[in-house]
């Protein structure tokens, strides 16, 4: 590890936890393949929120029998304007 070329990257991780309120476009997960995009979440490697809301995680079994973890965003209720 001379010269700092072999140091592991520290920016690849989960950026938000479950139950946290997020804004539109906020990054939820960066560079982790174990989490997939769920409801109101998009992105191939960096998962981000499509709408403001609360983050929650789900686990589903695929047709091949593998369990996947999904990151979802429950949208906030719309407030009525006068």
How would you describe what is shown here?
This protein has 82 residues and is mainly beta. It has one domain: Beta Barrel (OB fold (Dihydrolipoamide Acetyltransferase, E2P)). Helices cover 0% and strands 43% of the residues. The chain contains no helices and 8 strands. The strands form 2 sheets. A 4-stranded antiparallel beta sheet has the order 1-3-6-5, with no helix packed on it. A 4-stranded mixed beta sheet has the order 2-7-8-4, with no helix packed on it. Strand 5 and strand 6 (46-49) form a beta hairpin. The radius of gyration is 16 Å and the shape is flat. It starts with 12 loop residues before the first strand and ends in a 7-residue tail after the last strand. The mean pLDDT is 88.
Which class in CATH terms? Mainly Beta
Going across the major beta sheet, what is the strand order? 1-3-6-5
Mean pLDDT: 88
Q: Count of helical segments?
A: 0
**In percent terms, what proportion of residues is strand?**
35-45%
Share of residues in helices: under 10%
User: How much is the radius of gyration in Å?
Assistant: 16 Å
Secondary structure elements and pairings:
Layout: E1 13-14, E2 21-22, E3 27-30, E4 35-37, E5 41-42, E6 46-49, E7 53-61, E8 67-75
Parallel strand pairs: 4-8
Antiparallel strand pairs: 1-3, 2-7, 3-6, 5-6, 7-8
């Amino acid at each position: 590890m001379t010269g700092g070329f072999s140091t592991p990257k520290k920016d690849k991780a989960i950026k938000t936890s479950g139950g946290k309120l997020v804004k539109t476009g906020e990054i939820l997960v960066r560079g982790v393949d174990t989490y997939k995009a769920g409801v109101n979440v998009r992105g191939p490697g960096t998962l981000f929120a499509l709408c403001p809301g609360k983050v929650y995680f789900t686990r589903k079994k695929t047709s091949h029998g593998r369990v996947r973890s999904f990151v979802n965003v429950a949208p906030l209720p719309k407030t009525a304007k006068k």
